[in-house]
């Protein structure tokens, strides 16, 4: 089934204990679209500035991503984010955010994208996310991402989007803030009562947990010895989850559990190199091979 992502497309500058990179391709929708393209055909909607290098567009095209919803704003500058990871690299310290065209332009879906069935509202201002939900005709399953910046400063807007979606994906700290409870399970239940019947929480090296219509399920992360750059781990996790769900055309609990295992595997590849470098060369065979190892790792009877 059709899969649409709307969200940030960025030029990122990242510093980790393994090195620094400046002005590399980033943005939640970039990570998501390239990751999900290994599962199904992806539609990408977002805004870029005149300074956005053509070579990045080539990566999207090489993955057969539909770019009809990508708008280049004349005279505009691309969204820029710069972040730093230290020690255990579990949290990004944001050094600078320049919204540029992301703050100036509301997302506009082309007519050809309005019938999208599976939709990921990647990290963006909640008012932008809400406007996307209003442009869709009968979507089957909408998942939203968010972050503390929006939860802390635009809580009412975030709550409006929550009412309009089927699923939320965010990290544990964001879930505690949104669900107003230090206990993660209680926070997830509170969030579900606000709207989404599927609440998916990423816990970094500790894996992911889901609440789906009152049932819980958890998975560990894929065991990795070296993480070079955690940027995009959440987006690539969501890409495997939504890519798998859209391919199956199903959102029952069993499919969501399996989708989480694919999300975990895609995210594990992404963090092995800077930016989208690992995703650039990643193949469906790579995913399937690691998924087989991961399934074995999960099997208590093997
Ligand atoms: P993740 O590591 O999965 O949380 O996502 C990292 C990506 O989020 C980076 O490539 C950034 O460009 C993007 N990002 C950071 N801050 C924002 C923001 N305020 N709005 C939208 N995207 C953002």
* Number of strand segments: 13
Large-scale geometry: globular
Rg from Cα: 18 Å
Superfamily at the CATH H level?
Ribokinase
Distance between the termini: 35 Å
What does it look like?
By secondary structure, the protein is α/β, with parallel strands linked by helices. The chain has a single domain, classed as Ribokinase (UDP-N-acetylmuramoyl-L-alanine:D-glutamate ligase, 3-Layer(aba) Sandwich). Helix content is 40%, strand content 25%. The protein is built from twelve helices and 13 strands. It has helices at 28-36, 54-62, 101-104, 126-135, 148-153, 155-164, 172-179, 184-193, 233-248, 253-270, 277-281, 284-298, and strands spanning 3-6, 10-16, 19-26, 42-49, 66-73, 79-84, 93-98, 118-121, 141-145, 167-171, 198-202, 208-212, 215-219. The strands form two sheets. Strands 5-4-1-8-9-10-11-12-13 form a nine-stranded mixed beta sheet, with helices on both faces. Strands 3-2-6-7 form a four-stranded mixed beta sheet. β6 (79-84) and β7 (93-98) form a beta hairpin. α4 (126-135) runs parallel beside α6 (155-164) and α9 (233-248) packs antiparallel against α10 (253-270). The longest helix has 18 residues, at 253-270. It is globular, with a radius of gyration of 18 Å. The mean pLDDT is 97. Bound molecules: adenosine monophosphate. The site of adenosine monophosphate (AMP) has 16 residues, from β2 and α9.
């Amino acid at each position: 089934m059709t899969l649409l992502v709307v969200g940030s497309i960025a030029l990122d500058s990242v510093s980790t204990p393994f090195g620094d990179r400046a002005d590399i391709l980033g943005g939640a929708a970039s990570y998501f679209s390239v990751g999900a393209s290994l599962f199904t055909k992806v539609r990408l909607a977002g805004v870029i500035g005149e300074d956005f290098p053509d070579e990045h567009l080539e990566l999207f095209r090489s993955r057969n991503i539909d770019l009809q919803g990508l708008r280049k704003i004349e005279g505009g500058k691309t969204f820029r984010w710069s972040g730093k990871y230290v020690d255990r690299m579990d949290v990004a310290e944001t050094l600078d955010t320049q919204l540029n065209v992301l703050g100036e332009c509301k997302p506009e879906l082309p007519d050809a994208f309005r019938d999208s069935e599976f939709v990921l509202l990647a990290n963006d201002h909640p008012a932008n996310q809400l406007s996307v939900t209003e442009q869709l005709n009968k979507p089957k399953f909408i998942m939203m991402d968010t972050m503390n910046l929006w939860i802390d400063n635009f809580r009412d807007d975030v709550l409006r989007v929550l009412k309009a979606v089927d699923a939320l994906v965010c990290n544990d700290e964001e879930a505690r803030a949104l669900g107003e409870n230090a206990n993660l399970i209680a926070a997830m239940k509170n969030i579900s009562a606000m709207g989404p019947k599927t609440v998916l929480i990423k816990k970094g090296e500790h894996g992911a947990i889901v609440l789906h219509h009152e049932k819980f399920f958890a998975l560990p992360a894929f065991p990795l010895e070296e993480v070079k750059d955690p940027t995009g781990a959440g987006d690539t996790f969501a890409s495997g989850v939504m890519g798998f769900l859209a391919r199956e055309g199903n959102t029952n609990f069993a499919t969501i559990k399996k989708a989480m295992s694919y999300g975990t595997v895609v995210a594990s590849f992404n963090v092995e190199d800077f930016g989208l470098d690992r995703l650039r060369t990643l193949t469906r065979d790579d995913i399937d091979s690691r998924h087989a190892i991961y399934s074995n790792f999960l099997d208590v009877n093997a």
